[in-house]
Design a protein that fits this description.
15 helices, binds 4'-deoxy-4'-aminopyridoxal-5'-phosphate, four-stranded mixed sheet, Aspartate Aminotransferase, domain 1, seven-stranded mixed sheet, alpha/beta
């Protein structure tokens, strides 16, 4: 099978004339894997239909929000009913309280929460709050972690920044970059060294408890626990960026899965049920430093938007009801095993990291525990693999340094079809 993508090619040419790079978010341009992206017409379950009429099995799933796949009927119905009442008021609505109550119920460390409209806003606001609360300016992040595109977070950033080789972007003033220190994920000594050098200066450590933006990496035994202790000893806040892992690593996020209580948590993706949402929350004594009770300013015209709240609240209630986590894990494991066997059969060296419904195939012969390990992967092999699967109607993330997202809508048949197609794709990699 080899699918035709002529209309997507033409649509990309048109888009390029009026949109920088033809896209509204860089990784969508598929630059790391090809010449043009696929333009989507619609989505249903685990499948998207593109404008050429091809039906593809989708492992991007909008980069995480769609844990139930595209167009889940219950979420769709909730949004439709909300639309009838109006799309935005800029005034309080009760659904915002229901949403906050649900987040507080489900995420162990959150006592109070504020809604924003993206993950970027969530991390940016959480860091302002951490700085306002501690009276300190410096923050620590890990190389290869991505926390959105705010100035002070585009330092050694993952995701598209890593894919395009601009992990530290022009346009970020030196004096802002200067306040961001970088450490190494899974290397507690790299954090200890920073705390020793910058005593009483570090407001917070922000970290993806399960990094998904240098490809998927898992925390080593004791690493997150040690970081919790270290931040506490030094009077710094620990901020978990659970924009990907929230409601995905478990119903209570990575913090519930690993039993660690951060001071603040950033959320996004799944909590919006497919609409634009972010949130940050945590200890009430810290959150009450936000305006209008406190003096740390943060605001948003569309924050707590009623459509987004309805989609998100419905998604969280449905997750509680359907409890899909064991099932998702089993399906992702089956995919991992099938892919590993297919790679082996063709003598391709690949390391597959998987947790819950997240997975990355790294084209490297070493285990991937760190950013440096991830960077040993062959982006050329990934490109061949990606294109071979696309020709078979399987839509992977268009970069080596991203996660595949598996949804409850991915059936056993979708998984088996993907494994069969991967046989051919690994064969193509082996031949190249
Ligand atoms: N944090 C993490 C861990 C993310 O993966 C992302 C986006 N992929 C963000 C923050 C930024 O979220 P947004 O794109 O909604 O601004």
């Amino acid at each position: 099978m080899s699918l035709n993508y002529d209309k997507s090619k033409a649509a990309y040419e048109a888009a390029n004339k009026v949109i920088p790079g033809g896209v509204n978010s860089p990784v969508r341009a598929f630059r790391a894997v090809g010449d043009y992206p696929i333009f989507i017409e619609s989505g249903q379950g685990a499948h998207v239909t593109d404008i050429d009429g091809n039906e593809l099995i989708d492992f991007i799933c909008s980069w995480g929000p769609l844990i139930f796949g595209h167009n889940d009927p219950v979420v769709q119905e909730a949004v439709m009913s909300a639309v009838q009442k109006g799309t935005t008021f800029g005034m309080p609505t009760e659904i915002e309280t229901l949403m906050a109550e649900k987040i507080v119920e489900l995420i162990p460390s959150i006592e109070k929460v504020r809604m924003v409209s993206s993950g970027t806003e969530a991390t940016m606001s959480a860091l302002r709050l951490a700085r306002g609360y501690t009276g300190r300016d410096k923050i620590v992040k890990c190389g290869g972690c991505y926390h959105g595109h705010a100035d002070h977070l585009l330092i050694q950033a993952g995701s598209g920044a890593l894919t395009f080789g601009v992990p530290s972007s022009p346009g970020v003033p030196e004096n802002i970059a200067h306040e961001t220190l970088t450490a190494t994920y899974n290397d507690i000594d790299s954090f200890k060294a920073l705390f020793a050098e910058y005593q009483n200066e570090i407001a917070a450590v922000i970290i993806e408890p399960i990094p998904g933006n240098m490809g998927l990496i898992l925390p080593e035994e004791g690493f997150l626990e040690a970081l919790r202790e270290l931040t506490k000893e030094n009077g710094s806040l620990l901020i978990f960026d659970e924009v990907i892992s929230g409601f995905r690593a478990s119903l209570g996020g990575a913090q519930k899965r690993f039993g660690i209580m951060p001071d603040l948590t950033c959320l996004g993706k799944i909590i919006g049920g497919g609409l634009p949402v972010g949130a940050f929350g945590g200890r009430a004594d810290i959150m009450d430093h936000l305006a209008p009770v406190g003096d740390v300013y943060q605001a948003g015209t569309l924050s707590g938007n009623p459509l987004a709240m309805k989609a998100g609240y419905t998604t969280l209630c449905e997750l509680q009801k359907r409890n899909p986590y064991a099932d998702l894990d089993a399906r992702a494991k089956r995919l991992e095993e099938g892919l590993a066997a297919a790679a082996d059969a063709h003598g391709v060296r690949a390391t597959i990291n998987q947790v819950g419904s997240l997975l990355t195939v790294f084209f490297t012969d070493r285990p991937v525990h760190t950013y440096a390990d991830a960077q040993t992967s062959s982006v050329d092999q990934y490109r061949i693999f990606f294109q071979a699967l696309l020709a078979e109607g399987i839509h992977l993330p268009p970069s080596q340094f991203e996660c595949w997202f598996i949804s409850t809508a991915h059936t056993d048949a979708d998984i088996e079809k993907t494994i069969q197609a991967a046989e051919k794709a690994f064969a193509a990699v082996a031949k190249a």
